[in-house]
Specification:
The complex is a heterodimer. By secondary structure, chain A is mainly alpha-helical. Chain A contains 12 helices and no strands. The chains are: A mainly alpha, B alpha+beta.
């Protein structure tokens, strides 16, 4: 017990903030990109749909290290695109916090996209037609009718995206590395201290992660629960 | 008030080929499910695009393939009442009504209040569609359409999902609500009673083309084609061997019928409605048929007899008592003024 207090006193909390910041930014990006992609795919012809859907879902199916491999190929400064980004805009991705965000976004995005898409495909197409015959623009129909009606599905997609982004390990460690105070996320911290045999510190971080996860899911259920009150119970 | 439609659309093996024009305020389209009647409405609204043809409402061209005109649904000013009403589930009644409105906030609010009052929705403004009864939902859907002041209102099977009791009341309610609407209303249905009650002019659609059209009551009296007769509820048909202008043999019924009306030379079928038979006890006269009773069905207000050779005879309540008293008749009589001459 005393040993734990000692550790807690001297604990570097930076992984917590890095993880939460990364999770939030990646979730916000995935939220808009996911909804946008879902809309495109729902409207696409069946052939196109299959191809685009395959590409967008790939990061979820592949091992994160494979995604990490591709991200490194793309963003490494020894590769054309990475070099271009750095030379033209001064963006450094590898071994930076930006890398954390990109890795987390790529891995978590499919969850947002798939949930948003499933929710949109459930919507009665007559709602769209009704909106159109009432003179509403397609953009207005989308934001005022489709998104709210798909609300519960989009909310659950957001929870899962945040949870996934928060815990991302494989692609992040390859792209962003584990630089304490910069790219060292909780997941990476846990892996690192376990390698040193420091189960106590690892345990503290595990508890922190679990608390965050519970709070997030509880909050989101509260929000989507309110929205769902007009939907029947089983 | 006028509408002109001439459209063709191919869907797999199905060809929709509809052409009509009408100046009536209330037009009905009758057809079995899958005959293309909904597709016709959707083409008028711009939800579906025909392969060929044109659509004109009140002198505005909505669609013309040759002139490459195809207005978006948003620009057509056509109101569409969906079978399930398609109310926006996350919007309150007020917001649903205001959904298509443009203008300032106060203008919109005034319009919504006017509609709420007109459609007796007071007190329900803040409710969500899921918290409304079927009748209230219909009123909201109609208020939402009327708020937008469309040139035409299209009703797509508005009653087919309702139970019998509600159906009758909502039909009446809908007619009352539409009574002071000046534009054209087109209602599509597979139910002849609904359309008989609603429409001034009727189009009968069968397998993608118009089988008959005309003034509604007249069309029920004289459906002209066999398909139209069947869709308007005629149950009995027989092939015809015409003898002379007033005599013809009904081959499938095994009876020779005489009429004072002239039988057209191109007649192919006789039709006879199941309610029009007259029971006869005693001696056989002209236009009478001897039959064998095959089976019968008891309904709350009706009795249905199925006679050999393949004839349906529906007897209404007041006549049932007579039948119970006197037993089955010896013959049924075809009233000559009720015989339908069909092509």
């Amino acid at each position: 017990m005393e040993e734990m207090m000692e550790i807690l006193k001297e604990l570097d909390w930076s992984p917590l903030f890095i993880s939460i910041k990364t999770g939030i930014v990646a979730t916000v990006i995935s939220f808009f990109l996911g909804i946008f992609a879902a809309r495109k795919v729902v409207k696409a012809s069946p052939g196109k749909k299959a191809v685009i859907d395959g590409i967008l879902t790939l990061p979820m199916v592949l091992p994160p290290t494979v995604a990490g491999f591709f991200l490194l190929l793309l963003f490494s400064r020894r590769r054309p695109f990475g070099e271009f980004l750095f030379e033209e805009f001064g963006f450094k991705v590898v071994q930076t916090w930006l890398g954390c965000i990109i890795a987390a976004t790529v891995i978590a995005f499919p969850l947002m996209y798939r949930n948003a898409r499933a929710a949109m495909e459930q919507i009665d197409v007559n709602l769209v037609y009704a909106g159109r015959t009432l003179g509403m623009s397609d953009t207005k129909i989308f934001w005022k009718i489709i998104v709210p009606t798909a609300g519960p599905g989009i909310a659950s997609g957001t929870i899962l995206t945040f949870a996934r982004a928060l815990g991302e390990y494989g692609a992040t460690s390859m792209l962003a590395g584990n630089i304490p105070g910069k790219t060292g996320t909780i997941s990476q911290k846990i892996a690192m201290v376990i390698q040193d045999g420091d189960y106590l510190t690892a345990g503290i971080w595990v508890v922190v992660v679990m608390i965050i996860a519970f709070v997030v899911i509880f909050l989101m259920n509260l929000i989507s629960g309110k929205k769902m009150k007009n939907i029947g119970r089983w | 008030m006028s509408i002109k439609v001439q459209i063709r659309k191919k869907l797999g093996g199905f060809l929709l080929d509809i052409s009509f024009q009408s100046g009536s305020r209330r037009i009905g389209i009758l057809g079995a499910s899958g005959c293309g009647k909904s597709m016709t409405l959707k083409s008028i609204a711009g939800i579906e695009t025909p392969d060929k043809g044109y659509i004109e409402v009140e002198g505005h061209t909505l669609f013309d393939r040759e002139r490459r005109i195809n207005l978006k649904p948003q620009k057509r000013n056509v109101g569409y009442l969906f079978q399930n009403y398609a109310l926006f589930p996350t919007m309150t009644v007020e917001k649903n009504i205001a959904a298509g409105l443009e203008g300032s906030r106060t203008e919109k609010e005034a319009r919504v209040r006017e509609m709420v009052k007109k459609f007796q929705l007071e007190g329900l403004e803040k409710r969500l569609p899921g918290q409304l009864s079927g009748g209230q939902q219909q009123r909201v859907a109609l208020a939402r359409i009327m708020a937008y002041e469309p040139d035409v209102i299209l009703l797509d099977e508005p009653f087919s999902a309702l139970d019998m009791y509600l159906k009758d009341r909502l039909q009446q309610e809908l007619m009352e609500m539409l009574a002071d609407y000046k534009g054209t209303v087109i209602m599509v249905s597979h139910n002849r009673d609904e359309l008989y009650r609603f429409s001034e002019e009727l189009l009968v659609i069968d397998e993608g083309h118009i089988a008959a059209s005309g003034e509604t009551k007249e069309l029920f009296r004289n459906p002209v084609s066999r398909e139209a007769a069947r869709l308007t509820g005629c149950k009995n048909f027989s092939r015809v061997r015409r003898v002379d202008a007033h005599t013809a043999e009904a081959a499938d019924w095994g009876v020779t019928l005489r009429t004072t009306r002239e039988i057209p030379e191109d007649i192919q079928w006789f039709g006879y409605r199941a309610h029009d038979f007259v029971p006869v006890w005693g001696d056989r006269g002209e236009n009478m048929l001897r039959f064998d009773l095959e089976s019968s069905a008891l309904l709350p207000f009706e009795r249905n007899y199925y006679l050999r050779p393949g004839i349906c005879w529906f007897v209404q309540r007041e006549k049932i008592e007579e039948l119970d008293e006197r037993g089955m008749p010896d013959y049924v009589l075809f009233r000559e003024d009720k015989i339908l001459f069909l092509k």
